């Protein structure tokens, strides 16, 4: 994955947010991959973090790639995600697939799909607890904190319950 491609996603994202008059700001920080550490640096709650997972869904004639957005303090239930799309199983995509569909390294993926074959879904709880969400913005060392309603208006994810439910 070239640094240039990743930087282009970062700039593309900022251009989109500016064009759409989103309420957001950029936070620069050390390139830390852990959600807990990044949320502390950003000054946001862990649950405000929008974790982006590139998933493959297969089975029952379904073969689909999905960018699944989840609050960083929760875990994904990939079987619920597969079931939603009529598939039998879902798994995390390989690093090569992540690069192909997002032009980002794992951990830097923003919660926006810029690839026509990457379907964007988001778990609703991310938007129910906080007025702002936070996420890495195409680069491990840059985050965006933005208004939740602006995110929903601009990204228009399909809302799908796929978080792991406590037992």
Mean pLDDT: 92
Q: Bin the strand percentage.
A: 25-35%
State the helix count.
Answer: 6
Task: Provide the structure class.
Answer: alpha/beta
Proportion in helices = 25-40%
Q: Tell me the major beta sheet.
A: 5 strands, mixed
The side-by-side strand order for the widest beta sheet comes to 4-2-3-5-8
Count of discrete domains: 1
Radius of gyration: 15 Å
The termini sit apart by 39 Å
- Weakly predicted, low-confidence segments: none
Shape: globular
Tell me which CATH architecture applies here.
Answer: Alpha-Beta Complex
Number of strands: 8
The CATH class name reads: Alpha Beta
Return the string of H and E elements.
Answer: HEHEEHEHEHEEHE
CATH topology: YbaK protein
Oligomer: single chain
Q: Name the CATH homologous superfamily.
A: YbaK/aminoacyl-tRNA synthetase-associated domain
Short description:
The chain is of the alpha/beta class and 167 residues long. It has helices spanning 3-19, 35-42, 78-84, 95-102, 125-128, 148-155, and strands spanning 24-28, 50-59, 62-71, 89-92, 118-122, 132-139, 142-147, 158-159. The chain has one domain: YbaK/aminoacyl-tRNA synthetase-associated domain (YbaK protein).
Give an overview in words.
- The protein has helices at residues 3-19, 35-42, 78-84, 95-102, 125-128, 148-155; strands at 24-28, 50-59, 62-71, 89-92, 118-122, 132-139, 142-147, 158-159.
- The mean pLDDT is 92.
- It is built from six helices and eight strands, in the order αβαββαβαβαββαβ.
- It has one domain: YbaK protein (Alpha-Beta Complex).
- The strands form two sheets. It has a five-stranded mixed sheet.
- Strand 6 and strand 7 (142-147) form a beta hairpin.
- The protein has 167 residues and is α/β, with parallel strands linked by helices.
- 31% of the residues lie in helices and 30% in strands.
């Amino acid at each position: 994955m070239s640094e240039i491609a990743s930087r282009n996603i970062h700039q593309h994202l900022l251009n989109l947010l500016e064009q759409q008059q989103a309420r957001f700001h950029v936070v620069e920080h050390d390139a830390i991959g852990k959600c807990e550490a990044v949320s502390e640096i950003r000054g946001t709650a862990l649950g405000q973090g929008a974790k982006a997972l590139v998933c493959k869904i297969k089975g029952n004639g379904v073969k689909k790639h999905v960018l699944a957005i989840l609050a960083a303090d929760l875990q994904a239930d990939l079987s619920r995600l597969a079931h939603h799309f009529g598939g039998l199983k879902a798994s995390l995509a390989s690093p090569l697939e992540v690069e192909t569909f997002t032009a980002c390294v794992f951990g830097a993926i923003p919660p926006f799909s810029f690839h026509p074959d990457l379907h964007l879904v988001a778990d609703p709880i991310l938007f129910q607890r906080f007025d702002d969400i936070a996420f890495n913005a195409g680069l491990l060392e840059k985050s965006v904190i933005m208004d939740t309603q602006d995110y929903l208006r601009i990204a228009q994810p399909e809302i799908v319950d796929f978080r792991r439910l406590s037992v």
